[in-house]
Amino acid sequence: MLITCPYCGPRDVSEYTYQGDGNRTRPDPASTDQEVWNAYVYDRLNPAGEHHEIWQHSGGCRAHLAVTRNTLTHVVSSVSFARDAGHKKSDSRRKTGAKA
Amino acid sequence: MVEQESPLKPVWKPGTRGNFSDGVGVYLSETAPGSIVQLAAWHGEEKAIIAAIKKVAGLTLPDGAGGGAATGTKAAFGFAPGKFLVVDEQEGLVAAFAKSVKTETGTVTDLSHGRTAIRITGPKAEWVLAKFFAIDFSLTAFPVGAGRSTVHHDIFAQIQRSAPTQFDVYVFRSFARSFWTALCHASEEVGYEVK
Ligand SMILES: [Zn+2]
C-alpha cells in the first residue's frame, strides 16, 4: 500500500503511522455530556469501502495527513495535510443509537 | 565549542574493501560539519525562513517541497513543510540564525552534536542507497541540492543530493555507528573505500 504524501510524494505504508478515524470531532472539553463523549470515544462507522482516516508520515516529513482509504481495496483516493483538510461533514460519525 | 568525537570512531577502518571487479563503486566518509541547524517556520512564515537562509548562509533555495542547495562548504534543504536543515563546515551558524530569525517567524534548533553526516559518493551511490530506502534516487526524481526525509527500519534519515553522484545522509548520532556498519556491508558488493 502506498500513500502519496503531499510533501514527500508516494511512500510505502511502512513509513506511516495510523492515527485513527478521521471522522471524529472532539467535543468541547468543557462538555459534561456523557453521550457525546461516549460517541467520540467508542462510535465508529467501520465502513466496507471509503473511510476517512488520519495518518502521520512518521518516517518522513512527520506531517499529519487526512487520508481517504478504501477498506476493501486499500486504494487511497485522496491525501491532504490534516491541518488544511477538516473532514467533510456529509460522511461524519453516525448519531448515537442510529443504525450503521 | 566542545571538541566533537565521532561516534564512528570504534568502527572506522580507512581503506578499500569488497568486490572491485568494476573499480571502486562508492567512497564513504564522515563530513563532520561544524554546524547543523534545524529551522522551523510558523504557519505562513516559510518565505521569511527561506530569506533568512539566503541572508545568513548565502544559499538560495528553490521553491517547493524538498528544495535545496549545496556548495562545497554549506548546504540547506527542506525536509518537511516549513522545516529546513542548514549545514556549515564552520561552527557558529546557530548564533547567526538566532539573531536573524525572529521569535514570531520560527524556531532555531542546534543539532550540530545530535546528527552525524555520512557522505556516499561514486558511480554506485544511487544503487547502494536504493537498497536502504524505498525512494527514487534517479537524478530526475531527486535533483542536485534536493532533500528527502525517509527511514531505514527505525533509523530516520534526512538525505541531500549534494552533487550528481554524491549524497549526504544525516542520521541521529546514536544510530550512526549502526547505520555506518550496515552501509559498509551494503557497499561490499560494489567495492568501497573509506576515506
Ligand atoms: Zn511526508
Can you give keywords for this protein?
heterodimer; A: 100 residues; mainly beta; two-stranded antiparallel sheet; 2 helices; B: 195 residues; alpha+beta; Gyrase A, domain 2; Alpha-Beta Plaits; 2 domains; 7-stranded mixed sheet; 4 helices; globular; Sarcosine oxidase subunit gamma family protein (chain B); GCVT_N (chain B); sarcosine oxidase activity (chain B)
Helical residues, percent of chain A: 10-25%
The proportion of residues forming helix of chain B, as a percent range, comes to 10-25%
For the biggest β-sheet of chain B, the strand order reads: 1-12-2-8-11-10-9
Counting DSSP H or I runs of 4 or more residues, the number of helices of chain B is: 4
**Spans where pLDDT lies below 50 across 5 or more residues of chain A:** 87-94
User: What's the CATH H-level superfamily name of the largest domain in chain B?
Assistant: Probable tRNA modification gtpase trme, domain 1
Category from helices, strands and their pairing of chain A: mainly beta
> How would you write the strand order of the largest sheet of chain A?
3-4-5-6
Largest interface: A-B, 15 and 14 residues
**By helix and strand content of chain B, what is the structural category?**
alpha+beta
Poorly predicted spans of chain B: none
Please tally the helical runs of chain A, counting DSSP H or I stretches of 4 or more residues.
2
The number of strands of chain A is 6
How is the biggest beta sheet of chain A arranged? 4 strands, antiparallel
Q: Architecture of the largest domain in chain B, CATH level 2?
A: 2-Layer Sandwich
